[in-house]
Amino acid sequence: MLEKHGEGIVKQVGCVYHFEISPKKGEKAEIISVDMKNGKGKIAFAKEGTPDCTFVMVDADFMNLVAGKIKPQEAFMQGKMKIKGNMAKAMKFNPSILPKDAKL
After folding, report:
1. Phi–psi pair at 44, nearest 5 degrees
2. What is the CA radius of gyration of the chain?
3. Residue 2 CB-density burial (10 A; 0-12 exposed, 13-18 middle, 19+ buried)
């Protein structure tokens, strides 16, 4: 999807995000870097770049979020997702940035 639509998304978002996903609360987190600031964008399963904001979640809550079983606002309000960094830039990372033909 980034190869085809990345440049447009980068122009719209202009941020670097990190996702800290841990198997369970208190366990070591894996980092997923999502660069929506440079080129056509990039996703890496490692800590890359300086994030504008970081989303912190446990694996089960992250899977519920991406499956649409819980909305981002609900996850945040229920303490299932913590956000470190720039809250305004965090709000830019939402489903509306994806093209209509995107397959997740």
Report:
1. -135, 140
2. 13
3. middle
What is the mean pLDDT for each group of 10 consecutive residues in the chain (104 residues)? Answer: 86 94 95 95 95 96 89 93 95 72 56
> 55, 33 in Cβ contact below 8 A?
no
Burial class (CB in 10 A: 0-12, 13-18, 19+), 96: exposed
Rounded CA-CA distance 22/101 in Å is 30
> Tell me, what's the pLDDT at 98?
63
- Residue ranges per structural domain of the chain: 2-94
Give the model's pLDDT for residue 76.
94
pTM: 0.86
- What's the pLDDT at 102? 55
Residue in 49, 45, 63, 43 with CA at minimum distance from that of residue 1: 43
| CATH level 3 topology of 2-94 | Nonspecific Lipid-transfer Protein; Chain A (3.30.1050)
